[in-house]
Amino acid sequence: MNYALLDSYECYNGVEIPKIGLGVFLMKDENELIEAIKSAVEFGYRHFDTAKIYENEEYVAKGLKEAGISREDIFLTSKVWNYDQGYEETKIAFQETLDKLETDYLDLYLIHWPVEKFVDTWRAMIELYEAGKIRAIGVSNFQIHHLKELKNEGLLQPMINQIETHPEFPQNELHDYMKENGIIHEAWGPLGQGKSELLIHPILAEIGQKYFKTPAQVVLRWHLERGIVIIPKSVHRNRIKENSELDDFTLTQEDMDRIASLNTETRYGGDPDNQERLRATSTKPIK
Predict the structure, then answer these.
(1) Could you say which of 45, 54, 59, 129 is catalytic?
(2) Which residues lie below 8 Å from residue 18, measured CB to CB, with a gap of 6+?
(3) Among 22, 170, 193, 208, which residue's CB has the most CB atoms within a 10 Å radius?
(4) Model pTM?
(5) What is the three-class DSSP state of 20?
(6) Which residues in the chain show pLDDT less than 50?
(7) Annotation says 9 is catalytic
């Protein structure tokens, strides 16, 4: 039994989110994604993270169905995209997501990016949560000032903030703020999205050799040691299995300090304060 996949963190409302999930960003091939989901379920994964903009919610539903796993045994996340934000728009988008995922509730629904209408979007999500259609609500790519804006509005605070996080960009200040405010830190791109040479760094290789682990496993364990939820992405059966084998070793403080030295404050994904990009992605494309 892989106990790492059974471990969870508790949101401030009592809902438990598995510490390790399967991310499906950029997985557009139907058969490939379905097989990845089925492999993940077989290995013990129960947490799956998708989004409207990934255009694969239907494939996730199909994969879970073919895997033969019951709905109540999984933790399912999706996100409202930028051009669907706003009070009424969010409720419509949410229902579309439920339909594609073939479910009548989500375990977690996130605001994907902090575009101009995010406060109105959040009000709609609170109502959906209070109506029992979402077990936990949160945000993604929010900075401290975005989180403070919700707090200043006197609204329910997010239970989770899913943000780019890896050793080259550990998000220390934001991590500490969320910890102080009871917001769970969830990492997307926990391995750097393959956009750097992180996983061939000699420090990670040396630490891995001590525990007979790969550099990727060392990085994923580093996240768990920090109390972070991780959703590594892979369509490869052996890598999906490897990414979950994290419960048979722990990192020492010296290991953690050495990994902390890899911080270069390098962001490989989008900047949440890039207003031009946020505006551009808030316009629905004409079909």
Answers:
(1) 54
(2) 5, 6, 7, 8, 45, 46, 47, 75, 229
(3) 22
(4) 0.96
(5) strand
(6) none
(7) no
